Amino acid sequence: MNDSATSPARRIPVGVLGATGSVGQRFVTLLAEHPWFELVCVTGSERSIGRRYGEAARWALPQPIPPAIADLTVEASEPGLAPQLLFSALNRDVAQTVERPCAEAGHLVVSNAATHRMDPDVPLLVPEVNADHLALLEGQAVPAGGGLATNPNCSTIGLTLALAPLHRAFGIEAASVVTLQALSGAGIPGVPSLVALDNVVPFIGGEEDKVETEPQRILGTLASGRVVAAGFPISAQCNRVAVTDGHTECVSLRLQGDPDPAEVRRALMDFRSADTAGLPSAPEVPILVTEEPDRPQPRLDRDRGAGMAITVGRIRRCPILGIKFVLLSHNTLRGAAGGALLVAEQIVSRGLVPGLRRSP
Amino acid sequence: MNDSATSPARRIPVGVLGATGSVGQRFVTLLAEHPWFELVCVTGSERSIGRRYGEAARWALPQPIPPAIADLTVEASEPGLAPQLLFSALNRDVAQTVERPCAEAGHLVVSNAATHRMDPDVPLLVPEVNADHLALLEGQAVPAGGGLATNPNCSTIGLTLALAPLHRAFGIEAASVVTLQALSGAGIPGVPSLVALDNVVPFIGGEEDKVETEPQRILGTLASGRVVAAGFPISAQCNRVAVTDGHTECVSLRLQGDPDPAEVRRALMDFRSADTAGLPSAPEVPILVTEEPDRPQPRLDRDRGAGMAITVGRIRRCPILGIKFVLLSHNTLRGAAGGALLVAEQIVSRGLVPGLRRSP
Amino acid sequence: MNDSATSPARRIPVGVLGATGSVGQRFVTLLAEHPWFELVCVTGSERSIGRRYGEAARWALPQPIPPAIADLTVEASEPGLAPQLLFSALNRDVAQTVERPCAEAGHLVVSNAATHRMDPDVPLLVPEVNADHLALLEGQAVPAGGGLATNPNCSTIGLTLALAPLHRAFGIEAASVVTLQALSGAGIPGVPSLVALDNVVPFIGGEEDKVETEPQRILGTLASGRVVAAGFPISAQCNRVAVTDGHTECVSLRLQGDPDPAEVRRALMDFRSADTAGLPSAPEVPILVTEEPDRPQPRLDRDRGAGMAITVGRIRRCPILGIKFVLLSHNTLRGAAGGALLVAEQIVSRGLVPGLRRSP
Amino acid sequence: MNDSATSPARRIPVGVLGATGSVGQRFVTLLAEHPWFELVCVTGSERSIGRRYGEAARWALPQPIPPAIADLTVEASEPGLAPQLLFSALNRDVAQTVERPCAEAGHLVVSNAATHRMDPDVPLLVPEVNADHLALLEGQAVPAGGGLATNPNCSTIGLTLALAPLHRAFGIEAASVVTLQALSGAGIPGVPSLVALDNVVPFIGGEEDKVETEPQRILGTLASGRVVAAGFPISAQCNRVAVTDGHTECVSLRLQGDPDPAEVRRALMDFRSADTAGLPSAPEVPILVTEEPDRPQPRLDRDRGAGMAITVGRIRRCPILGIKFVLLSHNTLRGAAGGALLVAEQIVSRGLVPGLRRSP
User: D244 to chain A: which residues are within 8 Å by CB?
Assistant: First the structure.
């Protein structure tokens, strides 16, 4: 790493759209120590605009709010903000009115919102898996330097990262997943405590649809400037459980050739990605495989690989589909802010956007 | 109901083997108000024998310990106890050495232990579903008045109750279930609080095997004095979550003829059982179907039908197997002590065992 | 009890102001089975007016919503509602604009809101303790049949009920209390689950002030139509913990004459109140004393006496103030809706308000 | 720091007695990255002796078990172990038979067990507060190089650290504390999850006595080779709540001269200790004062200062004793393993024990 990479003075200025919420706060925390990016702009809703960020955000993370960022003044979420690179933690409705106008005004927007994930011209990215989909950026009708890239749903990311090596090695014919999702996925105020305590809520609005469609797009093939979805059926049942962070997913798969658990384990353990090599937020090993009989567990495994690695355990035969296992991924790190950072790092490291470039 | 049925003086004396544990306490609470049975005998381990029950039991239920029962002296778990009818809440190993000897000594043992559930000569019962399997009692090599009947695993019961009407109406070809199980299923001390809080444990020893095999036996056919298992494959993934009572199960089914959700809903809602009509512990409607988008939930639905009804919700298409839904059942009422009481009530009401008879 | 008391046709029609919230739902549940009162009117906010109650309320109690009440249409909270007797579960601000106008329009309002509790002309009542304060009703500038009476804060009620017999027997010189309060006290949405889980919040807005002042008014003396506060200092520290229902309070007291723990225990155990004898919501024994070393506990003791009795345990010497103990009371039953019902029962049974009378 | 201090080859070899339990695991984690100490020896109970540590310990921390330590063989807890310096995480009974014999065999034992804390010849230490009590080590009847020093109870440490500057600045006349203690303080299995969930347990065996006596010894004065206890009364009420880590304590104090909250805040904020300057485990600022109205909170504040700083908030007037506030400290870091490490660092840095010396 050369001097320019580490010098704070040369870091790329960035902004976070919707910085006061739960995912926004994760962006702030991760960016506070980022070697390439410097957070210089935060936006929020009407209620927050013009206030000090430290006062407008109802801070809910154990890490203290970074002092320099606490002093930023919250701006409106609209085109024309100072930084070229913007991360979006906007909710779905606001993203609808903000993200494309920002891209059209010359911002590179890397979004965690669901709004544009399935748009034909927008890449939906898990950087280790489908970096080739970045080519969609070239086809966007935006001025040089602008663009819009998206990060998948928090449950989709972990699932797709585990499916990718198996789809490559064997071909997936069907995937069934039941999720046990953490409370932080709903943000703050999110789930009322009286609803969460001593309870399970077997429904999360819109979630099952996302988990059933997004992986097919991510694992799909780029052809003639469009993504052809992978095409195998996915069935999702999504539950909210009383866990702060970390989504647990019980997965069953039908794979071509009916490989045995040892072959599946091998494919998962051996998975590495040249596409993220050297990127600051990339975990050394994206998929950790555990042999412990009762792992992964959210409290013990969610922070592995700085919250960017997923953990897979209990790989065994499924009497119906063939293979089943349990996976865990951190829903606000790998599954939201950290995942979006990795997308941005990949774009920047490849020099895909004029005006933004950094070498790993 | 005639006078004799309600007169406490005429109630059938019963005992509970392993009465100090978590399931034992549920038996005690339910029996304290039972119209047919009178609890007169409690047994426990070496540590407890000879002590007052109120002192030996580490009482953990909100209902206060019934005073008359608190004053019983804990006896050893062995043949020769005063009551003919014994409920067993013994753990698996102890049950191995106690239950058959008791049956052979002329006790009718209704057991919640896993030990003998799959024995060819022992009925494994969900009273609404397979009362015909009671015929196995006749073939047991025990003296008149003796016998051994069993209650399924806590996760099996709710599942099988939901599968039964669908198996009858359509025929089940495959069943996949992911459970989110309550802490009370593990008893006391059970799961350490540091393990349970802010966590999911994706493993419960022996549980998946039980859930994959017991329903097939219960839904099986009695032929030539043996049960022929139903034969469709079941895949189970069992998780422990931070809920006190109430197992949630996410179920996917492949049914013959591929019925739509409305047909499945109808079959579940219409299910009634003449085999349990009038029994004190039988819920009026065994399967409650909810249309609320985010139900069933443990805290809101576990006590429906006095904890003896199960609740099914979110019946919808599964893109892989055809139908999926969520079910909830109370694991220590319907799933343990209450279920065993219902078995005993059915046996007694049919006069299957000399010396024990009561009319509904 | 004569026929008229039990005949539903003769029950007194009542309404609940602010019926859709957490405390409102408790009122609905308790009134559904009340022998004297019949719920015929529910009010709510702008958002709910005109809707079916069953749809407007985000029902959060395990008991199913009573069908007849689910079908009521939500009305506006304002004078002129059909029932003379109105229970108020309004929040503080709305109560400010609604309660006195209702009383002035001839309604008897029994309120759980904090708004008017300290008003000189309004009785603040724990029916077992200060029924004589009901005399304040006579001095209110309202038409015959109208009036305004209030129920104390959820933490105050349990505390004051325990203090009352000790104040009478010995005289209290100082009271220090640290509360561990349940989530239901904050209603729904209330405390976000991410804030409640694996956490303690050592602050509840306005609560400490209420706990430090209300008991002094309740234990005060009525003289010349005004209440002279009891006058001893109270220090309160209020914490929110991850409990659904049931406030735990650690109390230390300086009592005149420095009685020993046995004397204090005796005074608490012997406490009975002729002022609530025969009232439907009055517990037989208001203060239960436990000798168990680790009780009271919310999950095990909150429902004692149908949630209307408090439990006191661990009575022992305090090296600073003299006596300390732990008390538990159900915060939405005794501490809110149930407490207000008991107030109304007392008023009605005494025939204090023209048009409303019922005999215990 | 000179080269020898950082060279792993020169680190002081240490052992942990009782390394498989909850506090033992914290020792292991902290020692794995310690600049002065190198963990080379772990001991356990009969059940564990001879096994690989990685298998004998039921690992329960999010940090993975350090590989080098996982490979150590568990030894018996007895004199003659290889390292001179031993940390003790033994339970009280075992410590009784092991710790003094080890000290008499020439080991320096730094113990977290309660067994010898109040022995006249054993220093009970909060390094920032009473380093002068280390002089007791000289009077111990042990060979050169041996000795026994102790770390206070987990609730005592945080409390005493907050009391120390106030005792110095004003003089404490009385201290009342109600604790809300985390589950990790009870170890594993510790509190059953069914007891902890949706509950408070208002009793922790032996805890109140420790909290009422230990601070007086720590804040006492060394005179003629003995500690004269501080002498002001302490009243403690100890509760277990559903929090993983972090003890919350509600404190009320009577201080000489009745200082106002601003003076108390100043004394707490300004507290620094020359006695721990430069020690690896010493937090830069031992007492953090927060102005947020609803802080400290376990989930947000327990890890401040790497879990070695305590946080004090809500400093305000108490109508009875004069001053009250809330404090939070991490019970297994500052309150157990981390606290003991700091004691050892202080002893070693002062060269108090022949054979062990390291410069900060």
Answer: 299
